[in-house]
Structure formats: structure tokens, C-alpha cells
Write a structure and sequence with these properties.
Blueprint (H helix, E strand, L loop, with lengths): L14 H9 L4 H18 L10 H10 L5 H13 L5 H6 L2 H7 L6 H19 L3 H5 L3 H9 L6 H11 L9 H9 L11 H14 L5 H21 L13 H7 L5
Helix pairs in contact: 2-12, 2-13, 3-4, 3-10, 6-7, 9-10, 11-13
The structure holds iron/sulfur cluster.
């Protein structure tokens, strides 16, 4: 008995579908497109000068505090910590857990974030002699794993600390990049809001800048993440406002109008 083919015969597919299939997986052309999107954003918005902090330790505090919170609230918590003289490793170490919770209350989830910050200090003291410079000198994969083992640290927080506090050449992904990847059909299947989705976005970003010299890659990842946040805030929120967006032409050519 004749059985139906598992896939429609190629000759029945439109040229457009065949072209799409050719770029659907993570591939050189998809990552090259993402690199081009970076260039368009850089041209439109200019240098972003991230992270908004004075010291690496402030970056680390901000990376913890910004989870599930708007940056304005983080600024209020950082201000409280500054007033208490706790914007340093020594200052934070001297605070009781209760006091720390009170100071970071503006950014929410203080009963989770305060113990998480104390756990970071414990790791710093136990394995790096209390020195952020020692910690920064650890190899990226090792340090990433140590950070991921801590309470309250997911991949986005770990990568933000590696990139923005310690200047390791590590990409950071977030919801804004996930939306761009989905709406521009950069990944198939579209990246989910889960670990697999995060890993796929980071892999694609790494490939997009893979041809750039390694010594400038940390700066490129830094700018790229900041630029995706900029376009996300200006245009690519829960509802896409594509008109006038620097990435509009790419979406018209490749994107999914239904997303
Ligand atoms: S607003 Fe539209 S064109 Fe701009 S990044 Fe989002 S989906 Fe792309």
C-alpha cells in the first residue's frame, strides 16, 4: 500500500518557503542578520555606556536587585545602601540580614534578594579571599557555574555579572532580545521564556559576534544588550510598535506579522 510522504515534496513549496527553511535554523545567515541588526541599532541610538554604576560591586548589586523590578526601584534601593555606607563588599558584609532587607525593600522581593546577596558574599569570601579582582580572574565557564549554583542567580543575572562587573566576553539575553528573535523569526522554534530559550539566544548572539576580534567582544556584547533594551523600551514592548523602529525593514522582509 502507498503511504503519504513524511514531508510535502520540495517542488510543491513556494520559493519563499524554501528560502525561509534555509535560514530557519541557527546558521551563519541568521547570526549574520543579528549582527546587522546590532549595526542598525548602534547607528540609530549610538553608544549606550552601560552599566549605569560606578563600581563593579554596584553592578553586582544592581544585577540582583533588578530582577522582576523596574530600574527606578533599584535606584531607590541603591540610594538607601549608599546612605548606609553599604555600596561596598565591606559595607554590605557589616549589615545584618534584617537591615539589608529593609534597605532594599524598594526593589521588592527583599526576603529573597537579601539572603541571595549574603550568599554571594559567602562565595566571595570562601573561594576568592573576599576579593572581587580574584573572582574576576576566574575562567568564565567556572565562574558562571559557581554563580549559577548560588540562590537567586539565574543565567541572565550570572551573565550580567560576568559581562558588566567583570568584563568577560559573555553575551546576555533578556525578554527584549527574545521578542526580537521571535518577531523577526531568527530562531526556529521561537525561543521560549525558559532555560532552553535563553541558551538559544545566547548561542545565537555569540555566533553573531564570532568573527569580531576577541579583545573587543566584551564591549560589543555590552553594547548589543544595552541596544536591545533601548529598542525594546522605545518600540518592542508587549505590543510591537514597528513604525519608525530601526529594525522595521528587517521585520518586513523576514518577520512574522502575527507576533
Ligand atoms: S518593534 Fe517591530 S521592527 Fe522593532 S524590533 Fe520589535 S518587532 Fe522588530
Amino acid at each position: 500500500m502507498e503511504t503519504a510522504p513524511a514531508h510535502p515534496p520540495t517542488q510543491q513549496l513556494s520559493a519563499r518557503t524554501i528560502l525561509r527553511r534555509a535560514v530557519d535554523p541557527i546558521s551563519l545567515s541568521t547570526s549574520a542578520r543579528l549582527r546587522t541588526l546590532h549595526d542598525r541599532l548602534a547607528e540609530a541610538y549610538g553608544a549606550q555606556h552601560w552599566w549605569p554604576a560606578q563600581t563593579p560591586f554596584e553592578v553586582i548589586l544592581g544585577a540582583y536587585l533588578t530582577q522582576n523590578t523596574a530600574w527606578k526601584s533599584v535606584e531607590r534601593s541603591l540610594h538607601n545602601l549608599q546612605e548606609a555606607g553599604a555600596l561596598s563588599v565591606e559595607g554590605l558584609r557589616s549589615l545584618s540580614l534584617d537591615t539589608l532587607q529593609e534597605l532594599i525593600r524598594p526593589s521588592g522581593f527583599q526576603t529573597r534578594k537579601a539572603p541571595a546577596l549574603k550568599a554571594f558574599l559567602k562565595l566571595l569570601d570562601a573561594e576568592f579571599g573576599g576579593s572581587l579582582d580574584e573572582m574576576a580572574g576566574a575562567p568564565s565557564p567556572l565562574l558562571r557555574q559557581k554563580l549559577l549554583n548560588l540562590p537567586g542567580v539565574g543565567p541572565e543575572t550570572a551573565d550580567a555579572i560576568l559581562l558588566y562587573a567583570f568584563r568577560h566576553p559573555v553575551p546576555v539575553a533578556d525578554e527584549y532580545l527574545r521578542r526580537i528573535a521571535e518577531r523577526h523569526r531568527l530562531l526556529t522554534p521561537p525561543p521560549g521564556r525558559n532555560r532552553a530559550g535563553y541558551d538559544a539566544l545566547v548561542l545565537l548572539t555569540g555566533q553573531a559576534f564570532g568573527a569580531d576580534p576577541v579583545e573587543v567582544r566584551a564591549q560589543l556584547f555590552n553594547e548589543f544588550h544595552a541596544l536591545t533594551v533601548a529598542v525594546g523600551k522605545a518600540h518592542c514592548g508587549k505590543i510591537a510598535r514597528c513604525e519608525g523602529c530601526p529594525l522595521e525593514s528587517d521585520r518586513r522582509q523576514w518577520g512574522d506579522p502575527a507576533q
